[in-house]
Please model this.
Amino acid sequence: MYELVKSLAAQLLMPLPVSLGLLALGALLSWRRFMRWGVTTAVVGVAVLFLASWGPFAERLLAPLESRYPALVHLPENTLLAGIVVLGGGWQPEAPYGSVAKLSESSAIRLTEGIRLWRQASALPLIVSGASRDPTVVPVARGYSAAAQSLGVPQQQLVVLDWPTDTGQEAQAVLDTLGPGAPVVLVTSASHMPRAMRHFQAAGLAPIPAPTHYLGQYHSPPALGYWVPSASHLRKTERAIYEALGLLMVPVEHSAPGNQTAQ
Model:
């Protein structure tokens, strides 16, 4: 039940549903002859959609998440690492594509970054994780494994955790595999990294952040597209809101009765 409520809340609190809801409410109020309130509500709905799709607004929401941890160019030299962990994302297991092309954009970039770091210490295990809440869908961890092997990672160096369906469960799976206090390099999207770090620390691991898949634009001066509302900017706003909501829920998830990751 909790997973259903969490998924619905994450969808309904996004800018587009909120904007459409306000527009529908404004139309209803106008139809019921509350013209002033109806127009005001509709204008607010349009303003929400405009701001969410506008580059300066979207970038400012996303930047605190993506800049929280610096990129990890080289593995730390004075730390005895237990493994490199690549967190799960999306993929299309039934698509008639190659193993890498089946991965979503975020998944492919995460895996590529994980392999880049793994090549600096190829004796370490490359731990890939992730599964769908739909049991009929092949877990993305298996997709990661196939793609990694096609990119030159030996099968014996891969650890496939193909049952966790969210970040908290991934942290617990890594804890069960490596033990408490294990220092691991954690690879995930930059916007997701603050939440992932909170989960792994709460689980009793010692994660070292290796953010990748940056959505924010790095340019100076801003290009023209920065100032024009677009779907790509809306995606950034949605990601920032989604991760902010996820961060709020981390303490709740780790303090829930029966949660094995609670410390």
